[in-house]
Amino acid sequence: MSRALVLNASYEPLCVVSARRALLLTLNQKAETLLAGDGVFHAEKVAFPEPSVVRLLHFVKVPYLAGMAVSRRAVFVRDGGRCQYCNAAAESIDHVVPRSRGGTHTWENVVAACRSCNSRKRDRMLEETSFVLRTAPRQPRHRTWLLAHGVRHNPAWADYIGDLAALTA
């Protein structure tokens, strides 16, 4: 199923929805189509181009960073799919301060790790090991969050969302 990028009235990226949902937003005059995709939706007597980018007609205030849930997929996107200890391909997540030692399941305490590093670190603190974090874990920025939802972005969206690869680096 095709996907469409939804922009706020201020042209700020909000989310990615199905092309069908984007078409309904435009038909209900809640959004305008800025960029059409390759497909077409057919009704009995009319055809509509498949929206690829739509902009809401009224500004919607959305708290982007509040309540952003930590998930395995999102941590992998934030860390580029690499182990934060040895830079190998990540296969699991690791709590920097182990949960058994009072660590929390928050963005600032969870990193991507390869199976080997995760097994060797076990439930120890970083100070008790020879491990060093490549980068300090932090909550991702909004545009990176679009990727964290498992959406492969359309290259035609680059004018609206910028270079997502640079944001995840």
Shape by Cα distribution: elongated
Tally of strands:
6
Distance between the termini: 29 Å
Rg calculated over all Cα atoms? 20 Å
Enumerate the spans where pLDDT stays under 50 for 5 or more consecutive residues.
Answer: none
Report the average pLDDT across residues: 87
Question: What portion of residues belong to β-strands?
Answer: 15-25%
Q: Tell me the major beta sheet.
A: 4 strands, mixed
What is the number of helices? 6
Helical/strand content category? alpha+beta
Spatially, the strands of the biggest sheet line up as: 2-1-4-3
The H/E string reads EEHEEHEEHHHH
| Residue share in helix | 10-25%
Descriptive tags:
24% strand, 169 residues, alpha+beta, two-stranded antiparallel sheet, 6 helices, DNA Binding (I), subunit A, single chain
Brief overview, please?
The chain has 169 residues and is of the alpha+beta class. It is built from six helices and six strands. Helix 2 crosses helix 4 (142-148).
